[in-house]
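Quick bug: Pentatricopeptide repeat output formatted oddly.
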Amino acid sequence: MKSDFLTSTTHFNHSIFNPKIPSRNFRISIKSSSSSKVRPDPWSLSDGNPEKPKPRYERPKHPLSDDDARRIIKKKAQYLSTLRRNQGSQAMTPKWIKRTPEQMVQYLEDDRNGQMYGKHVVAAIKTVRGLSQRRQGSDDMRFVMSSFVAKLSFRDMCVVLKEQRGWRQVRDFFSWMKLQLSYRPSVVVYTIVLRLYGQVGKIKMAEETFLEMLEVGCEPDAVACGTMLCTYARWGRHSAMLTFYKAVQERRILLSTSVYNFMLSSLQKKSFHGKVIDLWLEMVEEGVPPNEFTYTLVVSSYAKQGFKEDALKAFGEMKSLGFVPEEVTYSSVIGLSVKAGDWDKAVGLYEDMRSQGIVPSNYTCATMLSLYYKTENYPKALSLFADMERNKIPADEVIRGLIIRIYGKLGLFHDAQSMFEETERLNLLADEKTYLAMSQVHLNSGNVVKALDVIEMMKTRDIPLSRFAYIVMLQCYAKIQNVDCAEEAFRALSKTGLPDASSCNDMLNLYTRLNLGEKAKGFIKQIMVDQVHFDIELYKTAMRVYCKEGMVAEAQDLIVKMGREARVKDNRFVQTLAESMHIVNKHDKHEAVLNVSQLDVMALGLMLNLRLKEGNLNETKAILNLMFKTDLGSSAVNRVISSFVREGDVSKAEMIADIIIRLGLRMEEETIATLIAVYGRQHKLKEAKRLYLAAGESKTPGKSVIRSMIDAYVRCGWLEDAYGLFMESAEKGCDPGAVTISILVNALTNRGKHREAEHISLTCLEKNMELDTVGYNTLIKAMLEAGKLQCASEIYERMHTSGVPCSIQTYNTMISVYGRGLQLDKAIQIFSNARRSGLYLDEKIYTNMIMHYGKAGKISEALSLFSEMQKKGIKPGTPSYNMMVKICATSRLHREVDELLQAMERNGRCTDSSTYLTLIQAYAESSQFAEAEKMITLMKEKGIPLSHSHFSSLLSAFAKAGMMDEAERIYCKMSEVGTSPDSACKRTILKGYMSCGDAKKGILFYEQMIRSSVEDDRFISSVVEDLYKAVGKEQDV
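Here's what came back:
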């Protein structure tokens, strides 16, 4: 039995009726009952005549049979006013129905005054509720309710029962209720009791009540059964709930959607996702229509169980029915798609969610960031992170850890560090994974110290180190080649379980790089005893150790072991080793190898290494012959030899080359070039020439061979041969390349062979050889040092027209070219071009331009440029200050000189011996003898050591000016300060006497000051002879 009343009393299927409230502007006009017509009133009551029902729309009708209608209408208006003020989401309002006059009289007698129930019902409710404040058992329900006997109808008693809050009052009142004459057993009242017991968790009493209902012959309906199921679900009695549910199914009672939702939600809270799915399938089979909440639960359970297809199917049905999934539902299917590797589907779901205007949660964002990280779609990841900041979605530690890793992959190491510091500042830094993400970023950037600092930070904060932390520590120590710390990290890793193959490979590579052969062999033996699972990379490294150490038996055992492992036996590396192990002893050698589709070059190199270490030339020759017969041919040999060269094992590379030459086989050009380059670095020019000649016997040597041979000649100091080979190859149309040309021209220039350097430069221009920026810079500099300024200018013009970009060195050299050629305007133009190029102008180019301004007498321009350099943030060095000091001193700008010296001291640039030498030279050249001598005195006072150079400039200036007395005084002053005059100073003062025509005085000075201390110096002797000849005393020389 089911009624509207029952529906309104059950807790899981509320039926709340909200009456239509009239507009505030609605006015009611009522005439007297004697009137023939009454103005239509939609709120008027019926007169009870079924043949003349109340009109639905406003139209004239008969007068009411009750003359008290106006009072009823006022009471109703008061009630509605109160309702508008007080009603909330749980307001229960009475349903206005059509009443007969007799019903209306009864309604008036009840005098509810806008209340839900009559006065007697309200009084009964209050009376029973009041018992909750008394001690249990102190009052008898019969005594308390004695005044209500025969006054409450069955419906009234149900209302009183329904309005109770305490389970004891429900129990006692229900017992009293069953004693009343108006009581009749009904599923309605039992349902009310079941609901109230269920709300407070009195499941045992609810079960007893349900059994009592069955005993009295009340057949439970869907509402009663649903109430019982919801009680079980509410309190987590899932076993009893499912058992009861089976019984309900057997009675073919169809439950409502809300009951199913209640059960599904309860099962899901306890993570019984399998049972959720089973119940969902039964719900579908029963034909119960699911709502939005049902689909949300089901999709989530499918996702938790990993049933991608079922989850997506339910998700699709949900959308097809017009339901808009919540963010958590989208998040579930997106996460499921990512785990299943269906990345395109996940991206599509995310974009669909965003198109619905749903803001993703940080969990969904973390899932998508993880997806973009796996697919290396870093721009999308950064865009998503920007959207999170824009939508003010808080980024938790997981998201920040992912962003740190993404920044690391993009090389944005500073941004990664900033994100890590911000995470720490926000007190979100707690998970080990975030620390290790930052540590790995530092490790990948090459900053191992910072990577270890992050791990040390974890230790100081008492964050326990996991297995992964020890792996990262091992990688750090292996990179900086710290054997002791790496071994300690490996031991700590071993305590957490069996070491992984990658960590073992890191340790073994460390031992190999440091040539710790014994440790490497012992390590391999130990990890084999520990039964570490080898991967192919670890097998390769172990094989490399055995081959390098010449351990033939161990290598053979390892090859057999690899051949038995299903995971690696089909690898090309393993198959190549197996085929080439004993190639001489195989009967059908050629066919055996041809069965391998492609040989592994690394494996062949290892076998060659093993046989060379063993000294087994027959096996070595057989392997080489085999390699030349395969499709790889000489390229494989080239890669093997190159690998030996890279690893520094040149002797094996040489031995292989000798065997190849003796066997009459031909090496590739790159192999010959590599070996010639090695011989050149070792200054083995004879061996290099032998290889070069061997390469030229079969065909004309290629560019790489010629480049290597020229480089070998240059390294060994045979510049004439290098020059000859270059010119010969140039005649044949071979361009050795910009690097080789730069090396050769630079070597010739440094050796002073400017003519040959000029010939090479002209040849490059004539033959239109391809030069890069460095090549053109080298040629321009060579012509500058050779004094071929016009040729340097032509090379620059060629560089400009060829479209080769200029570097800052290019502009600096050209300023020197035009400055030396006294073409200041062109030098200024070059400097302006450098400014417009966007290149960073360094101190060197500013100093160069300042120097040429000074030489041209453009003092104001030099000072202005020096000031501009400082404004650009370039701090002048000692050479720049010395240059400015010299310019100002030469121009007699003493105040500026003092300011520059003070600025040097302020900026930490010491005024050393070179600074004062510059000042002395400048003052001497400009005939400011007093200032020059003042500088010498100042140096003496400051304790700066004086050298011959400081005196020779002033001495030379006095001699040139004919001031021999002053020159003689300076000469004597040198001895006073402990600086003995050198040969240059002696020659200078003697020449001064000769130049001013005072030979006698010069001879006298020579005999008194110089003769006793002079050594055999042909230059001094020549000047002395001239002095004696000048006075006619040649015989006295």
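Actually, after a second look the formatting is fine. The first helix runs from residue 4 to 9. Closing.
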